[in-house]
Design goal:
single chain, alpha/beta, Rossmann fold, globular
Length: 277
């Protein structure tokens, strides 16, 4: 399972929804929820989980553009959104959804975000959003994105940006060594230049404030317990693959670490909301 497979995105969706920071979400709703209508640009939309979690914060009429390079994920998003909605119709390639009294139009776009993000933002959405995305991007990408958002006077909301904090239960002596190797892997180029990794959320807040926006951030950690066993196990396997690719940890240590049964895990994330003053 890779970071962008439908299976992985399905596995993490419930944990993501639980983890979202309530204070940041309330700020989004207070600023945007009473508008008549809102257009939303969702970057790296995957299977549409961000829409499903965020729509309740926004006005009764919404138009979402879901952007992802992977057309397989976008087709999965279409299927999942139809199942999630109370009712739906189609308008060409677009979906017209009704959910909990909200009317939501959804358009699907395949694009290379390393190249096309500014052009997408320049189309003028009222809210630019993403989830579990910006730690994969670079400091330069974040700087350019924030400038593009500010230039259009859009609001900005991102959730579940990894911040580097991890805690495994039970703890083992190799945990810190494994986490350090994983962080080094996270900061390698993921297609946007050297990845910001755990520093991404701080860069986002700094860049929006430098450009004159109000910016609010809040912690949104995964607090995984026994009921999240499958997600914990997949996290462990994913870490092992990344650490093996990175090198610097001997195979015996990696294998022994993977084979420790874990009953809980804490993985840190940050949510960020930024808007014009």
């Amino acid at each position: 399972m890779n970071d962008f497979s439908t299976d992985w995105l399905d596995l993490r969706e419930a944990a993501d929804a639980r983890a979202r920071n309530g204070d940041v979400a309330n700020a989004v709703s207070a600023r945007l929820g009473l508008r008549d209508e809102l257009s939303v640009l969702d970057l790296g939309a995957g299977t549409g989980a961000n829409l499903r979690a965020t729509a309740q914060l926004l006005p009764s009429r919404q138009v979402w553009t879901l952007v992802d390079r992977d057309t397989v994920l976008l087709e999965a998003a279409r299927t999942k959104l139809v199942r999630w909605a109370d009712s739906h119709t189609t308008d060409g390639d677009a979906l017209e959804l009704e959910k909990s009294g909200r009317k939501i139009r959804v358009v699907f776009r395949s694009a290379d975000l390393a190249r096309d993000t500014k052009a997408l933002i320049d189309e003028g959405a009222g809210l630019v959003t993403a989830s579990a995305f910006f730690d994969l991007t670079s400091e330069n990408y974040i700087r350019d994105l924030s400038k593009a958002v500010v230039a259009t006077k859009a609001a900005f909301y991102t959730t579940l940006t990894y911040n580097g904090l991890q805690k495994w239960t039970p703890h083992r002596p190799a945990d810190n060594q494994m986490t350090a190797a994983f962080q080094r892997h996270q900061m390698k180029d993921k297609g946007f230049g050297p990845a910001a990794g755990p520093l991404a959320a701080s860069h986002l807040v700094d860049q929006f404030r430098i450009n004159g926006y109000l910016a609010l951030s809040g912690e949104s950690p995964w607090r995984l317990e026994r009921g999240d066993r499958m997600l914990i196990e997949e996290l462990i396997r994913g870490h092992a693959v990344a650490i093996t690719e990175e090198g610097g940890v001997d195979e015996k240590t990696v294998v022994a670490w993977v084979n420790v049964p874990r009953s809980a895990a804490f993985v840190g994330h940050i949510d960020v909301f930024a808007a014009p003053q």
